[in-house]
């Protein structure tokens, strides 16, 4: 029986994995190769079991031995096989063989594809749950160039056989989606979890490329991963491409700057530059192994209860234009952000924040869901060599400078705050620019929306020009305020 899912107006059925595989098999024009390494041939198994596979499967293989794999796909420079590079070599090689061996004259309507995965399932000690790369290169018309979907998964199940089964289901969903849902990439993304519970597997990176996805922004698809609960955080670089978190965070010193960046201002950049200078002076911090992350929490992307995707794109565009690495997360609490980084690195970490953010950290309401309350959260936050670099602010009513010495926390939190303050966990950013302390993103945003004069000078070089050229943040220029 197919599963039932609630729709807008009525219940809709989710095709079973057998039905999906059978539909592919019965399409006489779909023809391709399955290359699976590391978890058996679990995806193609579903196509064999569905029946009618002889017209779909050109070849299926598993080059488990490294020497054989290298002989077929080439040597990996770093000697690692569960990588995006390996997956793409597999896809390219198998497509080349199909094109070389199957005559287009004899089969003019065939739409070729290559499905591949390279994974590492749970180890015997069950300390490492495993991960993998999964992808498909395909065409929906014999005369068109190939499109591609590549994703990275992290296993959550604790039995190898269960991980193999889940991988097989995911593979069928991916192939089915590529051929029948490529024109609806957001739905395609959701359907990857058909018949898979979210606690079985995490998709933390996905990229769409090729003619079928020419209008797809992979940063926006990153946001969909978060909205759908498929992952807790995604990272992308200045070029707009999604970056595997493990690859960019592994053994790095990490300095994270959280904000709304709506828009990014001179204050944000001053916070980053001054705190990074201090961070690099810390013991055991190597500039060549350090990474700065500009992080936006999903809660900061919401407007009237819904995530404003265009607003997200506007902020991301500006941060990328400044050459920054951006992280979007579901972490409302800072300790969860630190825990996430700790999955990939044991090196030093730092958090750059303003006074209001630090005051919020000492607010007990954020930790009521923890059995140990705020003490448990702080144990997770400060258990290692983590420092908070605090950027001062001016009291809007008195003009007084507020820093770590003068800020006020709840009376019950005073002694706890003093403990961390006087143990060097909270340090002030002293070499700040006093001339920009009166710049606040929310006020700049109002000025942009109202087309008031003067907001341009509050932003980093080049940002105002981008806002005007692309009409970001509801900017609508008046006749006397043209793009300059």
Give the domain tally: 2
Q: What is the number of helical segments per DSSP (H or I, 4+ residues)?
A: 16
CATH topology of the largest domain: Maf protein
Going by CATH, the architecture of the largest domain would be: Alpha-Beta Complex
**Average of pLDDT:** 90
Largest sheet: 8 strands, mixed
Describe this structure as you would to a colleague:
The chain is built from 16 helices and 20 strands. It has 484 residues and is an alpha/beta fold. It has two domains: 3-216, Alpha-Beta Complex (Maf protein), CATH 3.90.950.20; 247-436, Rossmann fold. Strands 10-9-15-12-11-16-17-20 form an eight-stranded mixed β-sheet, sandwiched between helices. Strands 4-3-5-6-7-8 form a six-stranded mixed β-sheet, sandwiched between helices. A two-stranded antiparallel ribbon has the order 1-2. Helix 2 (42-50) crosses helix 5 (160-180) and helix 11 packs across helix 13. The protein starts with a strand and ends in a 14-residue tail after the last helix. 36% of the residues are buried.
Blueprint (SSEs and pairs):
Elements: E1 3-6, E2 11-14, H1 17-26, E3 30-37, H2 42-50, E4 57-61, H3 66-73, H4 84-101, E5 111-120, E6 131-138, E7 147-155, H5 160-180, H6 185-191, E8 201-209, H7 218-227, E9 233-236, E10 242-243, H8 245-249, E11 253-258, H9 266-280, E12 290-297, E13 302-303, E14 306-307, H10 309-321, E15 325-329, H11 334-342, E16 349-354, H12 355-361, H13 373-381, E17 386-391, E18 393-394, E19 401-402, H14 414-421, E20 426-428, H15 441-450, H16 463-470
Parallel strand pairs: 3-4, 3-5, 11-12, 11-16, 12-15, 16-17, 17-20
Antiparallel strand pairs: 1-2, 5-6, 6-7, 7-8, 9-10, 9-15, 13-14, 18-19
Helix pairs in contact: 1-2, 1-5, 2-5, 11-13
């Amino acid at each position: 029986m197919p599963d039932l899912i609630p729709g807008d107006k009525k219940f809709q059925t989710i095709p079973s994995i057998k039905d999906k595989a059978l539909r592919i098999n019965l399409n006489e024009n779909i023809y391709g190769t399955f290359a699976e390494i590391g978890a058996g041939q679990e995806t193609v198994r579903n196509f064999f079991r569905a029946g009618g596979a002889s017209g779909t499967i050109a070849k299926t293989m598993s080059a488990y031995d490294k020497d054989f794999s290298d002989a077929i796909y080439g040597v990996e420079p770093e000697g690692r096989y569960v990588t995006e590079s390996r997956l793409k070599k597999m896809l390219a090689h198998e497509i080349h063989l199909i094109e070389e061996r199957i005559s287009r004259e004899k089969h003019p309507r065939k739409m070729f594809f290559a499905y591949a995965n390279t994974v590492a399932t749970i180890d015997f000690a069950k300390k490492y749950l495993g991960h993998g790369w999964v992808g498909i290169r395909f065409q929906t018309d014999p005369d068109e160039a190939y499109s591609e979907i590549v994703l990275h998964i992290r296993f959550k199940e604790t039995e190898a056989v269960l991980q193999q089964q889940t991988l097989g289901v995911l593979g069928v969903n991916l192939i089915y989606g590529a051929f029948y849902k490529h024109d609806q990439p957001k739905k395609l993304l959701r359907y990857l979890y058909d018949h898979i519970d979210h606690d079985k597997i995490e998709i933390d990176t996905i990229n769409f490329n090729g003619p079928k996805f020419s209008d797809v922004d992979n940063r926006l698809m990153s946001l969909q991963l978060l909205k759908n609960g498929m992952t807790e955080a995604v990272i992308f670089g200045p070029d707009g491409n999604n970056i595997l978190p493990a690859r960019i965070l592994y053994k790095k010193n990490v300095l994270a700057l959280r904000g709304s960046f709506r828009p990014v201002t001179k204050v944000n950049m001053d916070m980053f530059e001054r705190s990074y200078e201090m961070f690099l002076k810390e013991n055991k911090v190597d500039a060549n192994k350090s990474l700065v992350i500009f992080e936006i929490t999903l809660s900061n992307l919401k407007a009237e209860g819904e995530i404003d995707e265009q607003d997200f794109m506007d902020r991301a565009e500006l941060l990328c234009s400044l050459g920054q690495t951006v992280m979007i997360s579901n972490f409302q609490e800072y300790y969860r952000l630190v825990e996430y980084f700790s999955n990939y690195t044991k090196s030093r970490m730092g958090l750059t924040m303003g006074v209001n953010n630090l005051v919020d950290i000492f607010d007990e309401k954020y930790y009521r869901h923890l059995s140990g309350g705020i003490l448990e959260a702080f144990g997770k936050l400060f258990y290692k060599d983590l420092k908070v670099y605090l950027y001062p602010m001016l009291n809007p009513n008195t003009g007084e400078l507020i820093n770590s010495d003068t800020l006020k926390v709840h009376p019950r939190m005073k002694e706890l705050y003093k403990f961390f303050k006087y143990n060097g966990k909270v340090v002030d950013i002293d070499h700040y620019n006093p001339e920009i302390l009166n710049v606040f993103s929310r006020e700049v945003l109002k000025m942009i929306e109202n087309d008031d004069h003067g907001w341009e000078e509050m932003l980093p070089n080049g940002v105002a020009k981008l806002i005007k050229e692309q009409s970001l943040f509801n900017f609508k220029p008046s006749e006397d305020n043209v793009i300059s």
